[in-house]
Amino acid sequence: MNFKQSFKLAIKSLKSSKMRAFLTMLGIIIGVASVIILVSIMNGLSKDMTSRFESMGTNTITVNVMGRGTNRALAIEEVEKMVEENPDYLDRYSPRVTASVTAKRDVNSASTTVTGVNESYDDMQSIAVTDGRFIQYIDAERRQKVCVIGTYLVQELFDGMDPVGETLKINGSAYMVIGVLEETADSEESSGDDIIYIPYTTATRLAGSATIGSYYITAVDADKIENTMAIVERTLYSVFGDEDAYRVTSMSEMIDTVNEMTNSIALVLVGIAGISLVVGGIGIMNIMLVSVTERTREIGIRKSLGAKRKDIMRQFIIEAATTSSMGGVVGILFGLGAAYVAGILMDLSVAPSWNAVFIAFSVSVAIGMIFGYFPANKAAKMNPIDALRYD
Amino acid sequence: MIRFENIHKIYNMGENEVRALDGITLDIREKEMAAIIGQSGSGKSTCMNIIGCLDVPTEGKYYLNGRDVSDLKDDELAEIRNKTLGFIFQQYNLIPKLNVLENVELPLVYKGVLEKDRIDIAMEVLKKVGIEEKRNSMPSQLSGGQQQRVSIARALAGNPSIILADEPTGALDTKTGQEVLEFMQQLNEEGNTIILITHDMLVAEKAKRIIRISDGKIVEDSGREAAK
Ligand SMILES: Nc1ncnc2c1ncn2[C@@H]1O[C@H](COP(=O)(O)OP(=O)(O)OP(=O)(O)O)[C@@H](O)[C@H]1O
Ligand SMILES: [Mg+2]
Questions:
Q1: How far apart are CA A145 and CA A178, in angstroms?
Q2: Average pLDDT value for residue range A163-182
Q3: Which of B55, B82, B93 sits opposite A301 (nearest CB)?
Q4: Measured between alpha carbons, how far is A53 from A251 in angstroms, rounded to an integer?
Q5: What is the spatial distance between Cα B149 and Cα B169, in angstroms, rounded to a whole number?
Q6: Residue A235 falls within a domain, yes or no?
Q7: What is the pLDDT of residues B50-94, one digit of tens each?
Q8: What residue ranges define each of the domains in chain B, with the CATH number in brackets?
Q9: Do A308 and B154 touch (CB under 8 A)?
Q10: B104 with B94: CB under 8 angstroms?
C-alpha cells in the first residue's frame, strides 16, 4: 500500500462524513488554535516591551545610589572623571533626579513627574524636541528655572497653544517653558508624553535633597556592555567600598529579564493549552477504534488480497495523521485569525511566530500518529478469517 | 501443486472440541478444476481457507508448490496469498468505498506494482470479464453478477497460479450463476488451476473432479486416481 493511496483514502473517508471528521478534529483544532493565540499574544507583548526598553537605549547603563553610612552620594565630578578615564567604554552620562510634582498654569493643573537631567540626556535617550530647545549646559550651570514639557502637558496646561516662552508653576515656583517634546504616546496621561525635564541642578532643590540618586551612562558599544558595567562597578566600589551601596543595571539586562519572564509565562500557558492537544489525540484514537471495527471486513478483504501488517498499519496511521493534521491546519488558521482579531479588539500588538506554526503543525501530525498507533495496530493484527466473517 | 497430508483443524469450544477437518489428505495438480462439495457444516470452507493460506491447520502438513506452509507467520502467508492465490467470495467482498478499477488494482498495490502498470493490468482483466465500461462505478451501483465479475477480475489481476472460489454462485440467480461458471471453466481451459466450493451438484459436475467432504473427512474423490 503506497502513501498516496492511503492519503487519498483518508481524505475520502474524511469527506464522506464531514460532521464526524469535524468533531474528531475539534480537540486538535482547539488545542492548536489556543497555542497559536497564546504564542502570538505573548510574542507581541514581549516585542512591545523589548522595543520600549530598546528605545531607552540598549547601551544605557543605570546607576542607582542607595548610599552607605555618611557616604550617601555619588558626586557628579566622580562620574565625569570615570567617563573621561574610560573613553573606549564610556561615552556620555547624565544625572537623573526625579520628583512627583504638581504643575499649574492659571486654573489648569496636573500631577506629573519632573526629571532633572543634563544636556546629554536628549541624545542619550533619543529624545526629540519639536519646538524650542532641550536643556543646555548653561541651564544646569546657572540653575535656571527652565523646563521642557511633553505634549500631554501642552494639552492639559496650555490647552494646546504654543507654550514656548510661557511660564508654568511647578510646586509653586515659576519655570519658563523652553521646549516641547515630540509626541510619542498619543499624549496620554502617565505616558511618555506626561513628563517635564528640568536641569538636574534645579531638580535636586525641587526634590529637597542635595544629592543625585541616579545616573544614566551610555556605553560606547552595546556589545561590550558587560565589560563596561564591570568598569562602572569597579569605580563605584572604590568610592563606596560596599557592593550594597549602589546598583548598576543595563537596559539589555532588563530586556533579557523581561524576555525570560514572558518566555516562561508563555511556556506555562502553552503547556496548559497542550493538554487539549492530548485530549484531541484521545478523541482521534476513539474514532479510529470505531473506524477499525466498522471496517473489519474491509481489513479482512485487504488481507486476503495480500496486505501485510505494515500495509494495514500504514493505512490507519496515515488516516489518523491526516485527520489530526487537517485539524492542525484549521487550528492554525483559526488561531492566527483569532489572534489578529484579539490584537485589534484589545489593542495589543500580536506577533505570530512561524516557529510556533511549524511546531503546532508537526505536533498535530505526531499526535495523529501516536494516538493512531494503537487502533492501527489492532487492525493490523486481525486474523483474516475472523475479519472476513465479520458483519 | 497443492498437497494436504493428514490435515486437522480443531476448534476448542470450551468443553467439547469441534473437528472441522479430521485428517484430510489431498493432492491437487496444476490446471485441475476441482469442486468441493458436502453438506453444510461439513468443513468445506475450513478446507478452502487453509488452501487459501487464510488459516493454518492445527495438525498436518500443507505443501503449496512444494513449500511447507503449515506454520508460516501472518506476513509470510499474506505474501503467498498475494502472489499465488486469487479469491472469489460468495458475497463478492468488494470494498464499497473504492470504485471498480481501484478494487481490481488492490492485489497489485500490495504487490508493489507501479500505478501506471496497475491501471494497464486492471483494465486488461476487466476487459477479460467484460465489464471494463463500469471501471469508474462504485460496487453499490452494480448488479450481483456484475460485482461477481469484478471480483473475478480482481482475483485474476495478480496473475495467481490458483483461483479459489467459495460458493461463487451462491448469491446469484441460476442464469447469472451459469455465466460465472462458464467463465470459470473458460479460465480453467486457459490453464488456470481452479478450486470451487458448491452445494449444487449441477455446478459441481462442470468440474472435472469432485471431492465430497463429510464431517471433516473426504468421503469421495473422483479425481484421486488421476491425481496420483
Ligand atoms: N471459528 C470457528 N470456531 C468454532 N467452530 C468453527 C469455526 N469455524 C468453523 N467452525 C466449525 O467447523 C465446522 C465446519 O465449518 P465450515 O465453515 O467449514 O462448514 P462449510 O462446509 O463451509 O458449511 P457451509 O456449507 O454452511 O458453508 C462447522 O461445524 C463449524 O461450526
Ligand atoms: Mg462454507
A1: 10
A2: 93
A3: B93
A4: 6
A5: 11
A6: no
A7: 999 999 999 999 999 999 998 789 999 999 999 999 999 989 999
A8: 34-55+82-223 (3.40.50.300)
A9: no
A10: no
pLDDT, mean over chain B = 91
Q: Report the alpha-carbon distance of residue A28 to residue A39 in Å, rounded.
A: 16
pLDDT at B13: 84
Judge: B78–A13 Cβ closer than 8 Å, yes or no: no
Q: Which residues of A touch B94 (CB under 8 A)?
A: 301
Provide the β-strand partners of residue A65.
A246
Domain range for A363 is: 3-51+257-389
Closest CA to B92 of B106, B83, B103, B81: B103
Which ligand lies nearest to the CA atom of residue A389 in the structure? 1
Q: Which atom of ligand 1 is nearest to the CA of B167?
A: 27
The answer on A273 and A189 residing in a single domain is no
Q: Which among A1, A11, A14, A305 is the top mutation candidate for probing chain B, defined by the most B β-carbons within 10 Å of its own β-carbon?
A: A305
A127 plus A11 within the same structural domain: no
Residue with cell 505616558: A191
Please tell me the predicted confidence (pLDDT) of residue A380. Answer: 94
Residue A69 confidence class, pLDDT cut points 50, 70, 90? low
Task: With cut-offs at 50, 70 and 90, classify the pLDDT of residue A1.
Answer: low
A119 and A203 share a domain? Answer: yes
Q: Parallel, antiparallel, or unpaired: how do β-strands A195-199 and A108-117 relate?
A: parallel
A388 vs B154: CB contact, 8 Å cut-off?
no
Does the beta-carbon distance from A306 to B83 stay under 8 Å? Answer: yes
Q: b/e map of A46-68 (b: 16 or more CB within 10 Å)?
A: beebbeebeebbbbbbbbebebe
Chain A residue with minimum CA distance to B92: A301
d(CA A93, CA A82): 10
Closest residue by CA, ligand 1 atom 29:
B41
The answer to whether residue A128 sits within a structural domain is yes
Cβ(B46) – ligand 1 distance below 6 Å: yes
Number of compact structural domains in chain A: 2
**C-alpha cell, B145:** 453478477
- Residue by residue, DSSP assigns A178-227 as EEEEPP-STT-TTSTTSEEEEEHHHHHHHHT-SS--EEEEEES-GGGHHH
Average pLDDT for residues B214-222, to the nearest whole number?
A: 92
Residue A138 lies in a domain: yes
Sheet containing strand B33-38, edge to edge, reads: B85-88, B162-166, B193-197, B33-38, B209-214, B217-221
> For B142-152, what is the mean pLDDT?
93
Chain Cα centroid distance, residue B99: 22
Inter-chain CB pairs, A–B, below 8 Å: 64
Is A71 inside a domain boundary?
Answer: no
Give the least confident one: A46-55, A177-186, A236-245, B182-191.
Answer: A46-55
Residue B201 Cβ contacting ligand 1 at under 6 Å: no
Tens-digit pLDDT profile for residues B110-130: 999 998 999 999 999 999 999
- Flag whether pLDDT at B228 surpasses 80: no
Could you list the beta-strand ranges (E) of A224-303: 246-250
Say if the ipTM goes beyond 0.90.
yes
What average pLDDT does chain A have?
89
What average pLDDT does the segment A299-320 reach? 93
Ligand nearest to the CA of B212: 1
From A211, A230, A245, give the residue that closes a domain. A211
* Ligand whose nearest atom lies closest to the CA of B36: 1
